TrEMBL record:
Pfam family, one: ABC_tran
Domain ABC transporter residues, every copy: 6-234
Protein family membership: Belongs to the ABC transporter superfamily. Drug exporter-1 (DrugE1) (TC 3.A.1.105) family.
Topological relation to the membrane, as annotated: Peripheral membrane protein
Record's subcellular location: Cell membrane
PANTHER family from the UniProt entry: ABC TRANSPORTER ATP-BINDING PROTEIN, DOXORUBICIN RESISTANCE ATP-BINDING PROTEIN DRRA
PROSITE patterns linked to this entry: ABC_TRANSPORTER_1, ABC_TRANSPORTER_2
Protein name as annotated: ATP-binding cassette domain-containing protein
Keywords annotated in UniProt: Antibiotic resistance, ATP-binding, Cell membrane, Membrane, Nucleotide-binding, Translocase, Transport
InterPro entries: AAA+_ATPase, ABC_transporter-like_ATP-bd, ABC_transporter-like_CS, ABC_transporter_ATP-binding, DrrA, DrrA1/2-like_C, P-loop_NTPase
Amino acid sequence: MTSSAIEVAGLRKAFGDKIVLDGIDLDVPAGTIFSLLGPNGAGKTTTVNVLTTLMRADGGTARVAGHDVTAQAKAVRARIGVTGQFAAVDELLTGRENLQLMMDLNRAGSGRRTVAELLERFDLTGAAQKSVSTYSGGMRRKLDLAMTLIGDPRIIFLDEPTTGLDPRSRRTMWDIIRELVSGGVTIFLTTQYLEEADQLADRIAVLDQGRLVAQGTPGELKRQIPGTHVRLRFASATDLDAAARVFADSTRDDDGLTLRVPGDGGTTTLRALLDRLDENALRAEEFSVHTPDLDDVFLALTGHATEVDAK
Ligand SMILES: Nc1ncnc2c1ncn2[C@@H]1O[C@H](COP(=O)(O)OP(=O)(O)OP(=O)(O)O)[C@@H](O)[C@H]1O
Ligand SMILES: [Mg+2]
């Protein structure tokens, strides 16, 4: 018995001379949520494709549910559920028919959930009789995930499950993911949203140009990136100089005439900061409170901002 749901060592994949995965190592304990965080083109979908047996790696090993993804692909497939980046639903069928078809393919009765329950859970009961061609992007993604749950897979791969969802649908998706994990399911989730990984994941790995540049709990990663800070923009370099002397722990950007002052963004801290500006007869042109996002993570971990791959 192993307690790892997913074990990956030295995984490599190239398309032609373009190296997409350059030696990936990761280990996902059973019953946890693992999030692979990265910008467009980082290699997230390629990783999911290899782990779900849809694509062969060029090197390294990957075991899912204790089985090798290349040598024992069939055994792996029997144990996983996959919701791809692009919804794999049949346009011509209704939502209900899509779910029923999946039930039939899974030899109905093996799963715990009924079609009606799934429709209800995903807020799709009202649209159940409509052809999927009339569904919005978010409705398709929800239907796609509902279909993945049929057959009760113990390891589920979700490739950017909430990209393009409105805030309410995103919360519904998060609740469903948490529910699955509390039932012992292992989730491998890719996302471009730091907040999502932070909210859901037990462990996060940051993927950049085919390499994992950081791995850890959300707390461990956040300690490596700049926290919440106030950004002040000044009218002149002289003002910026003066302010940088007043706020000794700040970071300056001479080109943008801005100063980043670390702080928690609470009203007490903000008032103290404004008072200090006043006491020193300094005036900021612009003032904003900034919470770290994916760009900050990348800047801190790689020294460069997220680079969107030209496809
Ligand atoms: N079948 C393919 N043939 C050639 N290049 C590919 C293929 N699939 C992916 N790539 C390239 O591999 C790189 C990683 O792609 P991948 O789809 O894994 O990124 P991603 O992290 O999922 O990005 P996104 O956030 O946009 O979904 C990209 O440069 C992409 O152009
Ligand atoms: Mg992708």
